[in-house]
Fold these 3 entries.
Entry 1:
Amino acid sequence: MEFSTSTIPLLLSPLLVIFLIRAILKVLLRPGCGRRGSLPLPPGTMGWPYVGETFQLYSQNPNVFFLSKQARYGPIFKTHILGCPCVMISSPEAAKFVLVTKSHLFKPTFPASKERMLGKQAIFFHQGEYHTKLRKLVLRAFLPDAIRSKVSDIEPIAANCLQCLEGRVVNTFQEMKTYAFNVALLSIFGKDEVKYREDLKRCYYVLEKGYNSMPVNLPGTLFHKSMKARKELANILEKIILTRRQMKLDHNDLLGSFMSGSEGLTDDQIADNVIGVIFAARDTTASVMTWIIKYLAENPTVLRAVTEEQEAVKRRKYVEEDGGKWKLTWEDTKNMPLTSRVIQETLRVASILSFTFREAVEDVEYEGFLIPKGWKVLPLFRNIHHSPDNFPDPEKFDPSRFEVAPKPNTYLPFGNGVHSCPGNELAKLEILVLLHHLTTKYRWSLMGSQDGIQYAPFALPQNGLPMELSLKT
Ligand code: HEM
């Protein structure tokens, strides 16, 4: 049968009517439609088609973008970044709503390339049952009771790291990355797999270069090289897992937890999550340590007080252990209140994770505004940490402000809710141990200009903070 041009409109009109009815029904039957359908979107601008306001965000310090938007539109505003419509939120209440009370309505979301490189089964990308199971296994390895025995293994790593820097001008961030990497490997594999350390390091260093690359898997591309390194890393892990299965020994580390009993994971799930934890543990902790070294150098009164606190720990150990070769213990690290406040204040001022990403899984109403299904939602940690309502004189580095506990939901360096950081105790522990050795044995001076900040992607002092470290005489 053939259609003449005059029959097409006749045929199209019933099709068009059906299409329109279906479209209207789809909108009307959408969960929460009706009242929610009539809600306004949050205030703000969406910029140019597709590119949105990406250039405005990335052509300057991103915090300038966030702060100016917040000043103009208030604590909840819409924008359009990297092809995605977004709602940004900067009040403690809204952050609690997204991350805690209604966390089931907001799923974690990452760029596809990152998901492929870390591995689809890594903890960050999941919600629900699988996420709960993973989180239990991860927490089992990182809760205080599990890491308290690691102090004696972390201490030599810290001491060696600093010893290697003596008398040299170094890129602080790079050196802290090595330290954080070695502690991460210790917490994942214990001391047994030291022999694989250099191979793991070599593969991981190639892998991480591709984290922010275009996901084009063709020979010669960064992405391709990274995926190859990822495969090699998974092979090394397979070897370690096989050896452990043959030895049938229990291990008090993350890999042991992943492999344990009936809750154990498949080899692929283990590989994705081991790579994921290295990713989560290393650059974050290294950035924070770099900022602490900078703030201490710039605040001599605070440095003096921290040094006195650490010298007192050292003297106490010296007497207790009869002048012998002393070792730090978990209890010692719990007895460093001023140093701990310096860490807290650094986490606030530097806010190395300025924000996180979620995606609305359905239309959500918040404070009379509609957050449409599929839109990205960004709780802006840095804005919350730098609001004078939450922290008076917020730009000032003042550890004493933590002598009083911050107001609820105003202090989120490790996030909040079901996806909050399970490694926070380990991060604080390794920083305390390093600071003990740094302040009791060394002095350091910063080199070059100290004003710039780079985003890689975490906020970091310009050029990784070059410094010269020397032994105290
Ligand atoms: C000072 C250093 C660190 C900071 C500032 C930090 C910060 C964070 C934040 C803000 C989140 C939540 C992200 C979100 O809600 O989207 C997070 C999640 C996570 N962190 Fe950390 N982190 C640090 C160190 C570590 C360490 C040392 C480990 C492991 C040993 C670790 C493992 C993880 C994991 C596995 C998650 C994902 C949890 C989940 O999705 O359930 N982090 N981290």
Entry 2:
Amino acid sequence: MGVALAASLLVGAGCYAAASPDGSGVGNDAETDEDAEPSEDVSSSGTEPAEDTSDGETASSSADSDDDDDPSDADDDDDPSGDEDPGEEEGDDDDVPDSDDDDDVPEELCAGPNKPKPCVGGEVEGYDCGNVELLSITSTDELGGGRVSDMWGWLHRDRRFAVIVHTNGTAFVEVTDPCNPVMLGMLPQSSSANAIHHDPKVWDGWAFIVSEAQGHGMQVFDLRRLLDVASPQAFEADAHYDGFGSAHNIVIDEETGYGFAVGSGTCSGGLHMLDLHDPLSPTRVGCFSQAGYVHDAQCLIYRGPDTEHADKEICVTFNGGSGKMSVVDVTDKSSPRELSRTGYPKAAYCHQGWFTSDLRYMFVGDELDEGDLVDRTRTLIFDMSDLDEPVLIGEHFGATRATDHNQYVVGDRLYQANDGLGLQVFDTADVSGANLTEVAYLDTLPGKDEGFDGLWSVYPFWPESEVIGASDRNLGLVMVRIVPQVP
Ligand SMILES: [Ca+2]
Ligand SMILES: [Ca+2]
Ligand SMILES: [Ca+2]
Ligand SMILES: [Ca+2]
């Protein structure tokens, strides 16, 4: 079924489209599906990805810390962030030490029969590439669905899992051996309405899944159920929250355990705030509706340069068709305070964005500007040193008119899923000069860059952040390893 459904939905699947490009959250539910808007993900989690891209270590460290994911440790499992391990640097695992082989793949990365496929002469399996290895592709059929939208990840000790959503619901795939993924099962969506767009986030061993499907609400799934699955399962949700019907995204502050559904029919499409500490019974704790429809957001405890707001819980929201980004203090959920609302030239659809690791700068994508407003993929770069007055300091333009979609930061790397151009990884060392330097790429849509096909999102927050997952609308789950650059 996946296939047929997918095909039928294919067309306008951009993320944007539908949903109320005008910022009114209203449309969203309605449109939900098809073209519905913009998608994705935001999340907080990664937020803090402080470290650097490379360290394999984190993995272990985090692993131990959280073994069983208990509620308290919000971050350990999944998020990249917290732990920086001093010792580990970029170089270590991958590049430096191993002089042995040229592919630099630690043996343990892929113990199974399939091995990493190197990018040779700028190509791997027919896809243009640079500084990557293609580890695996799990097709939409294998995932049990049609067209894929977003994804997130989970780490349990040394085991890595992908939570990836498609037209039929959510698929869970173990990618501990990323060259030999294991499909564990599927959780069907909770609404019979069709929707291309679903959005999963993970916190503390639980997955929270929303959808543009009308009446979907939020599914809650205990990821620990995946730990001893012997064959693919047909799962049911552990709990369901019906305080809203459709929603475009669920954002989680992994440090605090608060969730923020956005683009729902409630709160004027703004932040529908949830206390997730009892995951089986999420509780609505507030609403931020002042800026109207919000497409995506990043929420975190703020430890950045604007000391006036130190240690406050801050959400930066990307407000879709209104073409603006808001900074909101949500520390008091019953009385959120909008600190600023900032526009930018040639705005069409303020889609998604992510802070640099030091919270000084913000990368923002506009999903619809590549129509008539700009002629190449644009990444807006804001100086956020004053949350009360962000300043646009520059724009980075890609080489083609590809539509940008989701982007995340880990360490000094910016990972972008740019639809028809696929995955692009940038070094952000000169972000203050508004310069991004591409260090790796994989074009998952050969022969075409424009439009709303190709890569929806990327998940770089597993501890070994050179091993990343990417969700491609047509291909499914794409596992990639970023390889060290040859100077
Ligand atoms: Ca999303
Ligand atoms: Ca754009
Ligand atoms: Ca300030
Ligand atoms: Ca392409």
Entry 3:
Amino acid sequence: MTSKRTVVHVFVSVFILSIIKLCNGGVTSSYYRKLEYSTDLPLEVFTPPPGYNAPEQVHITQGDQTGRAVIVSWVTPSKPGSKSVRYWRADTHNKQHKHKAHGHIKTYKYYNYTSGYIHHATIRNLEYNTKYFYELGTGHVTRRFSFTTPPKVGPDVPYTFGIIGDLGQTSDSNQTLEHYHSNKKGQAVLFVGDLSYADNHPFHDNRKWDTWGRFIEKNVAYQPWIWTAGNHELDFLPEHGETVPFKPYKHRYHVPYKESKSTSPLWYSIKRASAYIIVLSSYSAYGKYTPQYEWLQEELPKVNREETPWLIVLTHTPWYNSLNYHYMEGESMRVMFESWFVQHKVDLVLAGHVHAYERSERISNIVYNITDGLCAPVMDPSAPIYITIGDGGNMEGIANSFTEPQPSYSAYREASFGHSILDIKNRTHAHYSWHRNQDGEPVAADSLWLHNRYWYPYAETSTTTTMA
Ligand SMILES: *[C@@H]1O[C@H](CO)[C@@H](O)[C@H](O)[C@H]1NC(C)=O
Ligand SMILES: *[C@@H]1O[C@H](CO)[C@@H](O)[C@H](O)[C@H]1NC(C)=O
Ligand SMILES: *[C@@H]1O[C@H](CO)[C@@H](O)[C@H](O)[C@H]1NC(C)=O
Ligand SMILES: *[C@@H]1O[C@H](CO)[C@@H](O)[C@H](O)[C@H]1NC(C)=O
Ligand SMILES: [Fe+2]
């Protein structure tokens, strides 16, 4: 395995150096990967844990605004079972230090599918920066997991996020998840939407939501994934009576939206270490006077960069995308919110939806109005960098058709599956890297030192561009 990987590295480096094209814009990597679509792995591959009514599909996410709470979710297939989660500090062996958090159960029907018992329990008042064990189930089917809470929120607190999007459940998805999982640096995942792709199957076969929950458990039971809803979470099927958008998603994936005064789980914010993370919904109304618009308008001025220097926005549909897919789908939201992002000096906007990888320059297009004719994005040091990372590897395959020439706002683009790592060091510097699945874990195909827009607003140099 190791020697095979080394050979692959050498091959990849030489290959990239020789065929990278410099266009009007940045770099279009022509790294070759197989283009055949991967179908979903069969349902039977994702076996439930052994034992009658064993808790399965265990997943955690942040449960409050600052990281002292965790929402633990799981499914019991046959009967409700125990509603509580037992937890204790990893550094205590005294049984008296075991605590219990009580949850509640939800079930739902979708066309002719009936869900198992979906449990959600919020554990509160945890210590910062502390490892906990937690247990679900009883007797023979007790299952034990662990998580580590983040450090207390503060301006120079280092923290490392993984970034994954459009994952699905194919062998490519499995490669992406395994690749990220083997990277010991990731402490929490920023997930930019499109989870199970159940809706690509007849009647949105909701058993695919169950298999996806089993698939990701190995990682998400141990570190929180911060959820964004994508178009594949809509599950809108009116011809078969399913008229409530986001029904399976909202039943299965809970987020702490009330903590940030949001009125919907589809948009909310959290603070974690030195980052302030705002999650938006591309598929909910965001025009003027709508709930999401009003919330974001109130929300942005609340961000205190002295406390959380890094301001990161997650949304599913990219605003800047130079591939021949989803043309202008993000444009209406860009028109509504881009000037706010520039005004509030957002550091990074993460999106998925397009099944490839792309990183933009710091650009904005806020001068444009319908009469002045100025419609091209311009370099803008107050603007965010836009990352499209819809390359988790779902059954729809890779997006490999680029617009030519590469626009000047596009710094790097490649048609490969992978994940990213955002390694925040302090208030001024964060190391960002993108890791394609075909490479060994430490190899970064695209990387740069990000400079914080509030504390250190100087230009960045990407290692990829320098190399070419
Ligand atoms: C749901 O309906 C589909 C299509 O009629 C059928 O193939 C499937 O077996 C049904 N599932 C259940 C649980 O009844
Ligand atoms: C996922 O990949 C791992 C590591 O290569 C492998 O052990 C596992 O069997 C794969 N899982 C599935 C469902 O293919
Ligand atoms: C739009 O552009 C025109 C032409 O430059 C300018 O006169 C007008 O004030 C602009 N409108 C707004 C709302 O900025
Ligand atoms: C912040 O981190 C960067 C990268 O590790 C380092 O070069 C810089 O000196 C750090 N700044 C401070 C104030 O420690
Ligand atoms: Fe999508």
